[in-house]
Amino acid sequence: MPRKYWAFDNKVESVNSIALYDCTMNLRFVEAFYWVASLRSVSRAAEKLFITQSAMSSRIAALEEELGTLLLDRRDKSFRLTVAGARFLTHAQKLLELQRTAKEELSGGNVVGEQVLRVGAIESVMHSWLTDWLSELRKQHAGLAIELTVETTPLLLDHVHRGVIDLAFAAAPASSGGVSSVAMPSMPMVFMGHGDTLKKRKYTAAETAAMDIMTFQRGSQPYVGLIDLLRDHRIDGARIHAISSISAMVELVEANFGIATLPHAAAMRLAARRNVRVFPSQLVLPPLTIFASYRSDPASIDIPAALVSARRCAQQLDPQTKRSSKKSMN
Could you tell me the pTM of the whole model? Predict the structure, then answer.
């Protein structure tokens, strides 16, 4: 049997295990088809790969010509794969994974300038454990380029659905087809107040509610959780201010505008460099649930494996985890 060759971005590598296609096929065309099929949109796939729609269509057409069959059903405006397209999608994923594995092995695990991970996160995660995780991720993948977006949960879920980002840490899971979601450790929430004006060891529920309380935007999980908490304590008339930025809330707290609801990890980090500290209240805020939603990219890093270290970074900042660790050491 004659040896087959596979074109890795214009570099020809000998591959004995793949004998389905001849040497003229370009993996960029395979990658284009994979994302068109995964995102079910030529325009979204073009946006993800930073090429024009016409260039994307040309790559798909070239791949179809090479394979000698249609991969996309173009008879109407609705998106559909042909039978051959559905079969080739499995091969496309395996080929892109093989390309990634080969590059990692040949470069000793450091594929410089090749891999990009586009991460999105809500502010609560950004100000808590995300930077620790990204630093650890870079140590594991020295050549990995990070693109970071900080947005609200609805926008992040829309971004991961459209393929604008690969991974989103948000307060709700994505529910669209092709997107996987897993629960991350929830984040304990606390009140945060000015460092010089808190005189009591513990403030009652009524004393807490008598202050101006800042929380996240209306409809967000912290906002709804605060409203429900006050209702459970039969507290009416509390002055609640919806603030979309943690930085803005901290500025207002330092100006003695009121107290704010924040993740415990973020509050402790801010207390180390700003004149703020945890406000001791009898009101116990509900924790903030966090989900990781992602589309696996066969040409990039293994996201499920990367989430193992993300979970560890999140757990290390949990006050309950810290107390358990201290007890085990004693």
Answer: 0.76
